[in-house]
Design goal:
Length: 505
Amino acid sequence: MSIELMPVSALRPAFYNPREADAERLELVRLSLRKLGFLLPLVATMDGEILSGHQRHQEAVGMGAARVPVMRVDVPETLRRGINILFNRATNDIALQDTERDMDKALSGADVRALADSLPDIPVDSPAFYPCMAAEMRDVVPLARHNVFRFVRHAANVGRMLARLHVDLPIVATPDNDVINGVGRLEAAARKGRKQIAVVTLDKGKAALAAAMLNLLSMDFRFTGENADFLRYGAFRRAWLRRTFLGTAFVLPVYRHKRLSDVRLDEKFMARWKAVCGENVLDFGCGQGDEARMLREAGIRVTEFEPYPAERNTVSREKGRLSALGFLAAVRAGTQFSAIFVSSVFNSVPFPEDREHILRIVAALCGPETLVCATARGTKSDPWSWVTEGEALSERASRGCNFPLGMEKGVVLGDVATAPKAQKFYEEGEFRDLFARHFGTVETGLTHGMVTARCRKPLHFHPHDLAASLRFEFNLPYPDGQRMGLVKQALDAFSMRVGLSLEDV
């Protein structure tokens, strides 16, 4: 562990930090510094970009501090957004299920101001203002034995992630080994077989205040602007998620509950499938295109659209544009789709307004009897239970370090520190309401943890709304900072399709 005192001017905030500070909690950050000082260091890149500790740095500057304690890490620029999110989660000893709202509620109940009143202020820039600089190495085994009843897999996995990034944040503990903050880091060290760990020792008179400030004081996530775009293109289907059989949305018209791996695209199945779905279909959000390929081999004409195709787990703007241009060519040509499939798309669309854009476009492509089949993981699925059931997790699920976001019910952030992605899980009624805003006939169900929808009879739309949706969908962002840039082509194609000009509305 290496912590150094750096001039406050040598550090700069990360523009992508998703935490949104509010005045009340910033006041508590300042109170914590006044009474406890820097129990943990800030974490920054080698060139001074803050990864963890934005609010503490801001308040220290406001208090007149000349220096702050910093642990510097060598992090590639491509990983900084994800690691920033990880740090926003990793420095709090909280349960897997806890959202920022849960933490705020617990903090309100801790009466931190009363706890602080009994403690004197620490002079700014004095040695006592930087207790983390006095961290000392202590044996892991006695600390682990004393705190083993608090060990939880989720916290340990976060601790392991930090260790893999060579971030050895100290833990905070009392002289008699009660861990105040960092139990996950301690467990990770114990499981790794480390002999010693850095400890900031804090007297018991400050323990209650420190526990509240270190574990409960946090700012809300706000994903807007570039951070919102980061989640949009971050939710693409990973290269390893390949289909070897049709997904639920494609099987639903024939079998409602049959195990997908048992479905064979033989003559009998395809005859039944064609009778319901027809022979000219659209796969909207086709991912790697596996299902489209299988259907083509079975004699179905398939149009594909995937704005975020991935090559070796990297989104390809070029291929996204090619997919969009092929789709728009079919729209412009007046292709009549007998069925449209939206298979496992809405799990990866993190914002409600984005979902409305997609469904408005899908509905505009439907005739009265066009069948729309859609599926998404629901709140009865295993991946959702991995989060909500907390520590009753499989090892595989726990390694993902998924945790719920408070921005909307059912939203989980996962794959932090590598390629963070938001996933939305649905209740059946919620899924029904989503489609009922765009279709006159909606049948929903639940199968194998997936919510399903079968829709017909698209509702009338306002041209202005459709134009707005096309301007959004065909100008999606990409990781290289560019956008799709096909708005004009989309407006032109859909104008031909609906028989009125959308370019001027």
